[in-house]
Design brief:
heterodimer; A: Urease, subunit C, domain 1; TIM Barrel; 2 domains; eight-stranded mixed sheet; B: TIM Barrel; 25% helix; 20% strand
Chain lengths: 429, 470
C-alpha cells in the first residue's frame, strides 16, 4: 500500500478523533462522591457516553472505545450549581448596557423572563466552569429602592457547556422579594408588599378560573397585566418554585403563611435568620438557598446572621443550597462551602448543597445533581478536596463535553506570565 | 445572600494606599499643623501575664518557617522566637502541638467603622462626596468603634488595619491605622505613632460621581490627573510659605503667619514625606501615570489599592518599591476591574514587587488567610513557587511596611509588639480557625473562652437572646 494511503488513513483518524472523543470517556481510579445511592466509591470508574453517564461504580468495565482518563488519587464530584446566579445576564456590572438582570416599571413583573436575554458566550461562563460550576439558575433581580414591584420575574436553569442547547429550563422559578427590599419596592412598608402580592395572586386565581370572562371583558379590572397574571397563575398550586428573598425570622414566617394561602412551592433565598425558624421550615419542607459567609448584622433584618446558619438548618432537616450572589466569582462558592463545614456542617452536606440539593429544588434531579447512570455527564475531576481553597478543578465535563480549561483569565495570565518575546505581549507568541 | 447592589456600592464607595519609614513622631508643631498633636492615640495595651507558645509551626512573617518552635511573649513584646525555648517561672504555657503561629494579620484596606454594620445611611461615614478634593477630612473622625465588624475581623486573626475614606474623591482624606481592640473611642484604637495615609483615587469613581452624576470636574481621566497636579502645585506653594514663615521666626523681619488650610495641611505633609499616599487604582496605565505625578511633586506612593492590573506592570511597581494591595480574585464588577486574575499576586511576587492581600470588605477581612491561600495556590499551579512562609508576608510584613509600622509589628522578632495568632492548623486551609489572637501580648480573642470574645454594644440584647426573651 502506498504512503499516500497511510497518509489518508492518518487524516481520517485525525478527523474522526474529536468526534470519538466526544462520544465516550472512562475516568478511572478516582474517589467518586456520587451524591447518589452509591455514596462514596473508592477507586471507582465512570463511563461517559453520548453526553450521559453510562455507568458508575467500583467494578465497571472500561469500554474498548472509551478514552481513558487516569484519575488515581483525584476526587470526582458532580458539577456544581450556582443556585442564585446572574451568569449570562450581566457582563460588567456597572456597564448598564451589559446588565439584563433588572426590569424597571411595574407593567411586567412576574412575566419578566431572563431567558430571552441569556448570553451563552458571556466571559463569566468559562471563568466559572473551569473551576467546576456547570449549571446556573439564572435569576432576575430587582432595582434597588425604585418604585416597582416586589416580584422580580422568572428565572431559568442553564448549563455552562455550550452555546447551542444551554437553556435547560426556561421558566424554572418565580422570584419575589419580601423584607426590607420588598418593602422599599412596594412603597415603603412590609404590609404594602404583602397587600400587593395578595392582590396579584388573588387576581391571578380569578383570572385562571374565569379566563373566558376575562377575554370577553366581563371581569373586573385586575391589578396586574395579562402576561403577569398568566405567569402567576402558572405558579399557583403548581410545581414551579417561588423563590422568596427574605432574611428576618418574622418575614420568613410571613412567607410561609403566604405560601400556605396560595399553595406556593416556597423556596427561601438569603435566609440570614432562617436558622431561627429551622423547625418550621423543615416541617413545611421549604428549602433555603443561602450564602454561608453571611454573618454580620448588615441589615436590621439580618441581625441573627451566623456562620452556623447552614449547619443548624441541616441539623433540623432543612434542604440547604448555597449561592453567594456574586456571579463573576460563583467559583468561590466552594470556599464558602468549606467555611460552612468549618462551622459545623457535615462535609457531605456541604457538597450536596452545591449539587443534588439545588438540582432537587429546581426540578432537575432527574438529569443532574449526582453521579448516576442515565444522568447528564456533568462532573469535575479535582486535584484535592474540592472545598479546600488550595484545590482546583483539573478536568470538567458538561453533558459529556470535555471542557477546554481556558478562559479570558487564563489567556491574560499566559500573555503576561509567559516569557516576553521580542514583540510587545499584544502580539501572539 | 450578599446583595450585589450593596456589594458594588461598597466597592464604588471604597478606595485607598501608604509609606514605610515615615517618622513615628507626632506632627511637627512649628510648620504647618500646630494643632495636630491634640489628636493622639490613647491606646493602652491590656496588662497580661507572660505566655510561651510551644511546639508549633511558626511562620515568622519575614519569609521563614520554624517547625516545632515557640514564641515567648512578655510585657507586650516578643521576647524570643525559636526552637527549644524554656518557660521561665511563672510563664503560662500554651501547647501549640499541631498548630501554627503567625504574626497578627494586617488589613491595608478596610472601611470598618466608617461603613459599619448595620449598613444604613445614618452610618455612611466614609465618603465626603461634596468635593473632588477633601484631603482635609480624616477617616478616624468617622469611625464608629461599635462596628460589630471589628469583632468578626478579630476572630479572623486581624490585629491591625488601615481604615480609609472611600474612593469617590480624587483626594478622599486621611487614613488611620488601628489596633483591632475593643474600645469605646477611636483614640483608644489608634495604633500609637502610626503615620497617617492619604487616600487618593483614580479612574471611574471620581469620574462617575462628579462628572456623570454632578456634571462637574473631573469628568474624565484627564481631569483626574489635572486635579492631582493642581492640588499638589498649590500644596507646594503653601508648604513654602510656612517654611519661610518658620525660618523668619526670631528674625527682625518676621513674616506674617500664613492662613491655615486643613486641606493643604494634609497635602503638604505628603510632600514632606510624613503622610504616605494610598492610591485606589485598578488599571496598569493609570498606575503608571500616577507614578509620574508622584515624581513631578516628589512624593511617595506607598501602595496602589485594588490594582487588578498590577501584574501588567509588575516590574515598574517593583522598581519603584510601591506595594500592590489586591484581592485574590475579584473582577468584572466594573470596566476598570475587568482584567483581574487570580495570578496577580503570583506575577507580582515573581517580579520582586511588594504584594499585599487586602479585603475592602467586612466579609473578606474575616478570612484574609483564605484569600492569600487562593493566590498562593494559583502561583504554584503556574510554576511560581510560593510557600506558606512567603505567602504570609502578604498579610503581615508587607502591609506593615505599606502602613509605616513595620518597625513595630508585622513579623515575629524579639522586641516587636506581640501581635500574633495561634491557628488550629495550617492557616492556608479553608478549615483553619484562629484559636487565640494576641495584641501586644494580650489575649484579645480566644475561641475556646467566651470570656475572651468581645461583643459590640450594638449586639447586646438586639436579638431575641435568652436574657431578653421569655
Amino acid at each position: 500500500m502506498s504512503p499516500r494511503f497511510f497518509a489518508l488513513l492518518g487524516l481520517c483518524a485525525l478527523l474522526m478523533a474529536p468526534a470519538a472523543a466526544a462520544e465516550s470517556w472512562a475516568i478511572t481510579g478516582a474517589r467518586l462522591h456520587t451524591l447518589g445511592p452509591s455514596g462514596v466509591i473508592e477507586n471507582g470508574t465512570i463511563v461517559i457516553r453520548h453526553g450521559r453517564i453510562e455507568a458508575v461504580g467500583a467494578d465497571v468495565d472500561v469500554p474498548l472505545d472509551a478514552q481513558r482518563i487516569d484519575a488515581a488519587g483525584k476526587i470526582v464530584t458532580p458539577g456544581l450549581y450556582d443556585a442564585y446566579s446572574y451568569i449570562g445576564v450581566v457582563e460588567v456590572s456597572l456597564v448598564v448596557e451589559t446588565d439584563d438582570r433588572v426590569q424597571s416599571g411595574a407593567r411586567y413583573t412576574a412575566s419578566f423572563r431572563v431567558a430571552d436575554a441569556i448570553n451563552p458566550r458571556s466571559t463569566l461562563i468559562p471563568v466559572n466552569r473551569i473551576e467546576g460550576i456547570t449549571r446556573a439558575v439564572v435569576t432576575p433581580a430587582v432595582a434597588a429602592e425604585s418604585f416597582s414591584s416586589p416580584v422580580a420575574g422568572l428565572g431559568s436553569v442553564i448549563h455552562l457547556g455550550g452555546v447551542e442547547d444551554y437553556l435547560v429550563a426556561r421558566d424554572a422559578a418565580l422570584y419575589v422579594h419580601l423584607g426590607e427590599e420588598g418593602a422599599a419596592l412596594a412603597g415603603g412598608a412590609r404590609g404594602l408588599t404583602l397587600m400587593r402580592l395578595r392582590e396579584a395572586l388573588q387576581d391571578a386565581r380569578d383570572f385562571s378560573e374565569h379566563r373566558g370572562a376575562f377575554e370577553a371583558r366581563a371581569r373586573r379590572q385586575y391589578s396586574a397585566s395579562r402576561p403577569d397574571l398568566e405567569a402567576l397563575a402558572e405558579t399557583l398550586d403548581g410545581e414551579r418554585p417561588v423563590v422568596v428573598s427574605v432574611d428576618r425570622a418574622s418575614d420568613i414566617r410571613t412567607a410561609l403563611r403566604l405560601a400556605d394561602e396560595f399553595g406556593l412551592k416556597l423556596v427561601v433565598a438569603g435566609g440570614a435568620e432562617a436558622w431561627m425558624e429551622a423547625d418550621r421550615l423543615a416541617a413545611a419542607q421549604v428549602p433555603v438557598i443561602l450564602d454561608p459567609l453571611e454573618n454580620l448584622p448588615d441589615r436590621f433584618e439580618s441581625l441573627g446572621a451566623t456562620l452556623e446558619n447552614a449547619a443548624r438548618l441541616h441539623a433540623a432537616g432543612v434542604t440547604v443550597a448555597f449561592a453567594t450572589g456574586e456571579s463573576h466569582n460563583a467559583r468561590n462558592m466552594r470556599q464558602a462551602a468549606g467555611n460552612a463545614v468549618a462551622y459545623g456542617l457535615p462535609w457531605d452536606a456541604a457538597l450536596a448543597a452545591m449539587t443534588v440539593n439545588p438540582a432537587r429544588i429546581f426540578g432537575m434531579e432527574g438529569a443532574t445533581g449526582s453521579l448516576q447512570a442515565g444522568k447528564d455527564a456533568d462532573l469535575v475531576i479535582w486535584d484535592g478536596d474540592p472545598l479546600e481553597v488550595t484545590s482546583a478543578a483539573e478536568r470538567v465535563f458538561i453533558r459529556g463535553r470535555d471542557i477546554p480549561m481556558v478562559s479570558r483569565h487564563t489567556l491574560l495570565r499566559d500573555r503576561y506570565g509567559n516569557d516576553a518575546g521580542p514583540l510587545p505581549p499584544q502580539y501572539p507568541h | 445572600m450578599r446583595r450585589p447592589i450593596l456589594v458594588f456600592s461598597c466597592v464604588l464607595a471604597a478606595g485607598c494606599a501608604t509609606p514605610d519609614s515615615a517618622p513615628l513622631a507626632p506632627a511637627v508643631p512649628a510648620r504647618a499643623e500646630p494643632a495636630e498633636g491634640a489628636y493622639h492615640s490613647t491606646y493602652h495595651r491590656i496588662d497580661s501575664p507572660p505566655v510561651l507558645i510551644t511546639n508549633a509551626t511558626v511562620l515568622t512573617g519575614d519569609g521563614r518557617r520554624l517547625d516545632d518552635a515557640g514564641v515567648l511573649v512578655r510585657d507586650g513584646v516578643i521576647e524570643s522566637v525559636g526552637t527549644g525555648l524554656q518557660a521561665p517561672d511563672g510563664v503560662q504555657v500554651v501547647d501549640g502541638s499541631g498548630k501554627w503561629v503567625t504574626p497578627g494579620l494586617i488589613d491595608s484596606h478596610s472601611h470598618l467603622g466608617v461603613y459599619p454594620s448595620p449598613v444604613v445611611p445614618a452610618h455612611a461615614d466614609g465618603n465626603e462626596m461634596t468635593d473632588p478634593n477633601t484631603a482635609e477630612v480624616w477617616a478616624e473622625h468617622g469611625v464608629w468603634p461599635q462596628d460589630p465588624g471589628f469583632d468578626a475581623a478579630r476572630a479572623g486573626g486581624i490585629t491591625a488595619l488601615q481604615v480609609l475614606p472611600g474612593s469617590a474623591n480624587l483626594f478622599g482624606g486621611r487614613t488611620v491605622t488601628l489596633k483591632n481592640v475593643p474600645a469605646g473611642t477611636v483614640q483608644a484604637m489608634k495604633f500609637p505613632g502610626a503615620p497617617h495615609g492619604l487616600k487618593m483615587a483614580c479612574g471611574e469613581n471620581p469620574k462617575r460621581i462628579y462628572g456623570a452624576m454632578l456634571q462637574k470636574f473631573p469628568m474624565t481621566r484627564m481631569g483626574d490627573v489635572a486635579g492631582y497636579r493642581a492640588a499638589f502645585a498649590k500644596a507646594a506653594d503653601y508648604r513654602q510659605k510656612w517654611r519661610e514663615y518658620a525660618e523668619s521666626q526670631g528674625e527682625d523681619k518676621e513674616k506674617p503667619r500664613p492662613e491655615r488650610d486643613l486641606e493643604l495641611d494634609t497635602l503638604a505633609k505628603v510632600l514632606e514625606g510624613e503622610i504616605a499616599v494610598h492610591h485606589h487604582c485598578y488599571r496598569a496605565d493609570e498606575m503608571a501615570l500616577v507614578l509620574d505625578v508622584a515624581r513631578e511633586f516628589g512624593y511617595r506612593v506607598a501602595s496602589f489599592h485594588h490594582a487588578t492590573e498590577a501584574y501588567k506592570i509588575a516590574d515598574l511597581l517593583a522598581a519603584n518599591d510601591v506595594c500592590a494591595s489586591i484581592w485574590a480574585d475579584w473582577w468584572g464588577f466594573k470596566m476598570e476591574a475587568l482584567d483581574g486574575i487570580r495570578e496577580n499576586a503570583a506575577l507580582l511576587q515573581r517580579a520582586g514587587a511588594c504584594v499585599i492581600i487586602h479585603s475592602d470588605s467586612s466579609t473578606g477581612i474575616q478570612r484574609l488567610n483564605q484569600e492569600a491561600a487562593k493566590a498562593m495556590a494559583s502561583a504554584n499551579r503556574m510554576g511560581i513557587e510560593v510557600d506558606e512562609a512567603q505567602a504570609i508576608r502578604w498579610l503581615t510584613q508587607n502591609p506593615a511596611k505599606a502602613l509605616g509600622i513595620a518597625g513595630r509589628t508585622g513579623t515575629l522578632a524579639a522586641g516587636k509588639m506581640a501581635d500574633l495568632v495561634l491557628w488550629d492548623r495550617n492557616p492556608f486551609s479553608v478549615y483553619a480557625k484562629a484559636e487565640k489572637v494576641y495584641v501586644d501580648g494580650a489575649l484579645v480573642f480566644d475561641r475556646a473562652d467566651p470570656a475572651r470574645q468581645a461583643e459590640s454594644d450594638f449586639m447586646l440584647g438586639i436579638l431575641p437572646a435568652e436574657a431578653v426573651q421569655p
